[in-house]
TrEMBL record:
Its EC number is 7.6.2.9. It comes from Lentihominibacter hominis. It comes from the Bacteria. Residues 7-241 form the ABC transporter domain. GO terms for molecular function: ABC-type quaternary ammonium compound transporting activity; ATP binding; ATP hydrolysis activity. Pfam families: ABC_tran. This is ABC-type quaternary amine transporter. Keywords: ATP-binding, Nucleotide-binding, Transport.
Length: 246
């Protein structure tokens, strides 16, 4: 029998020096789910996300990814199997769009040039980048186009899981809307499991098949956007829905 839970956070706590930033968090992500993570600033969203690819190992508790505990697994191969996309451009400035996208598959599959080219084409197409941009450098692209290249690069290893940390945080509203449309389409098209951190409640409610609401290191609610909207777990969630939480 296959376990449909691709990521499990079990009794997770995180302490930095003497300050506790995550307190006994438990939740599971099912295969193919699009989980948006929202909450007040500094509540631990990024910390939680980075635990999924072992960039952060919890002080206590276990994170189980595809049946493997991040404490015991080979983190390099785990990270290669998970896409990671963060806010702003983290592209290599001296590499063309094609080289940026090919960077990871290139590392993994050095000899097979045809396969690499096919992967570049496929992912450029999926994220909505014109092929004519292949030989451009990042400085020759708009912020939204750079973001698309970043997404294509994180998808280029065909990961089962994609972690996205405020990926559309640095682009204007119109581009943001377009990128949101793209990521919804990519999710539907590929069936990939996504964990997506955002500050924007509208974005969280629009994109997520489930929304994880956090406050000060705790999970306040974890449910479908509809259920969160209809039955906010408490006053914090209610206020967040009215965008009045500072
Ligand atoms: N390496 C570290 N050492 C000490 N404290 C840290 C470290 N990394 C994060 N923190 C603290 O842990 C808390 C949670 O940080 P985290 O980045 O996970 O929050 P966040 O919810 O993603 O924040 P934001 O929404 O502002 O990006 C914050 O108070 C932060 O200052």
């Amino acid at each position: 029998m296959t376990d449909s839970k691709i990521i499990r956070y079990e009794n997770i706590s995180m302490v930095y020096s003497d300050s506790q930033v995550i307190s006994d968090i438990n939740f599971e992500v099912k295969k193919g789910e699009f989980v948006t993570v929202i909450g007040s600033s500094g509540c631990g969203k990024t910390t939680l996300l980075k635990m999924a690819n072992g960039l952060i190992i919890p002080t206590s508790g276990n994170v189980i990814v595809n049946g493997k505990n991040t404490r015991q697994t080979d983190l390099t191969s785990l990270r290669r199997s998970i896409g990671y996309c963060v806010q702003g451009s983290v592209l290599f400035p001296h590499m063309t769009v094609a080289k940026n996208i090919a960077y990871v598959p290139n590392l993994l599959n050095k000899r097979d040039r045809k396969k690499i080219d096919a992967a570049v084409d496929k992912w450029m197409n999926i994220v909505g980048l014109e092929f004519s941009m292949k030989e451009r450098y990042p400085y020759q692209l708009s912020g939204g186009q750079q973001q698309r290249v970043g997404i294509a690069r994180s998808l280029a290893v065909s990961p089962e899981i994609l972690l996205m940390d405020e990926p559309f945080g640095s682009v204007d509203e119109i581009t943001r809307g377009m990128l949101q449309d793209e990521i919804i389409r990519i999710h539907e098209q590929t069936g990939i499991t996504i964990l997506f951190v955002t500050h924007d409640i509208n974005e969280a409610m629009r994109l997520g098949t489930k929304v994880l609401v956090m406050d000060r290191g705790c999970v306040k609610q974890y449910d479908s956007p509809d259920a969160v909207r209809k039955n906010p777990a408490d006053e914090f969630v209610e206020k967040l829905l009215f965008r009045s939480v500072k």
